[in-house]
Amino acid sequence: MSSSLGEKPDSGSIGQSSPDDTGTVTAAKESPPIVWLARLGAVFVAIQAYVYIRWIFSDSFSPIPTGPDAVPTHTLVIIRASEVICIVGVIASIIWLVHRTRKDGKFPTLGVFMMGWLLTCWQDVGVNAVVPVFSYNSAFLNMGTWGEFVPGWVAKGPETPAPILYELADYMLFLPLAVVGIDKLVKSARARWPRLNKAGIIIALLLIFLVLDTASEQFLQRQGLWSYLRVNDTWSIFTGTLNQFPLYEGVFFGSVVMVASMSFYLFRRNGDQLITDAGIERLQITRDVAVVRILAFSAVMNVILAVFFLGFNLVNMHADVAPTDVPSYLHQNMCGLAENPPCPHLK
């Protein structure tokens, strides 16, 4: 991959040399950090492609119905309205990316952030990898889920669907809008309080996002869009109801993971470079630099999410509180919920 990315030789390499045709010893070429990260990102893309291809050409690629229980009218209205917003928003994002790229002559860093996050979408289903603890309303436009095709997935029967339009908009609309808004907020705060350092900003954002994540999750849960169907009683609120919420999700995903990812954008270097762009000046290519940047950023985010979901699933092994009355459009025949048979691996 080093030749395809056209890295410039690193004259500072120590202990790695080879003679050229004239017998002169020259420094060996070393790939800059961005290239190594891009290689890892390419591996994750290959896994994602493998998962999606198997899913699309399987019998599982079909809508999961809502079941016998009727979805409340206000919930259906919210779901359909959100899907319209998602479609319009994603189209607007694509138009903006094309316009900005043509105007600046290069792919924008916000686009790198956006596309890098999009390449982590395949991990979203990881919340239910071992135990079904989370469910989207199956009234969302869906074609089932790719979960069962993810390497290491524990087979346990029916799974919750993936809301295609909503998840796409998460990465191409809602997340970019959030990071742009936070970026402007941080710049304003630094202008007003010049002594505000990175540590202070990160601590403040961790607290803000914990509150925002918990509040937004609760609001949307109460509208019937999704539900945490199994939680750990000790670290959760509103347990035993469809509105129960695991505070550890708010702390580690809503706060830590989100702030960590945004920090890459908020604390850009050399004008407009992400931390994952380290060594970009050594690349000789010009046209495909954006691809390398996207792959590098996606590699780091995929690793962060993999670590999060690993820990989340370990905690979920002890998630033993579930609501007794779960409508069919939320439990979707998943094991151990409502009157469904228990999960075979948890007997």
UniProtKB/TrEMBL annotation:
Keyword Membrane listed: yes
Superkingdom to which the source organism belongs: Bacteria
Region (Disordered): 1-26
Extent of Polar residues compositional bias: 13-25
UniProt-listed Pfam families: AveC_like
InterPro entries registered for this protein in UniProt: AveC-like
Keywords, alphabetical: Membrane, Transmembrane, Transmembrane helix
Listed transmembrane segments: 36-57, 77-98, 110-134, 168-186, 198-216, 245-267, 290-312
Entry protein name: Spirocyclase, AveC family
